[in-house]
Amino acid sequence: MHRVAENLHVGGLDAAGDGAALRAAGIETVVGLTHDPSTGGYPDGVRVVREPMVDGPRNDATAFERVVDATRGTLAAGERTLVHCSAGSSRSVTVAAAALAGVTDRGLAAALGAVLSRRPPADPHPAPVRRANPIRGGRGWRALPYHN
């Protein structure tokens, strides 16, 4: 698990089930992008937002928008949040960057760069990155169709 911005952490499935590490980091909300929860489940006292996604271009635009909005909401509320997928290198990185772009004055490219610089094993699939397009006003970003 890596802290990639204020109140925002990215990690894999193992980090999501590590209650001691979550407590040490002060994590209040876990955003889970995997189809199955961690083997040990999620620790008590941590709010869990689950939006299972697959890696690559087959993700539903509405689901992607929903999970980015949920993550953006936790950040706007000042909650320490962990976004996780299986390995913490693709889906979680993209969702974290899109949410970060939505709550800061930086664009998606800058937010993604910030996340990548603090999460060494990160290697996001290009399709979800293309889907996230930050805009100003209203909800702060919108989902775009894939251009494969």
From TrEMBL:
**Which CDD domains does this one have?**
DSP
Q: Which InterPro entries match?
A: Dual_spec_Phospatases, Prot-tyrosine_phosphatase-like, Tyr_Pase_dom
Gene Ontology MF terms: phosphoprotein phosphatase activity
Region Disordered, residue ranges: 118-148
Does the keyword field hold Hydrolase? yes
Q: Which residues form the Tyrosine specific protein phosphatases domain?
A: 62-120
Arranged from A to Z, the UniProt key words for this protein are: Hydrolase, Protein phosphatase
| Any one GO CC term of the record | cytoplasm
Stored PANTHER family: IP21249P
Q: Which family does it belong to?
A: Belongs to the protein-tyrosine phosphatase family. Non-receptor class dual specificity subfamily.
Q: What is this protein's record name?
A: Protein phosphatase
Q: Say which species the protein is native to.
A: Haloglomus irregulare
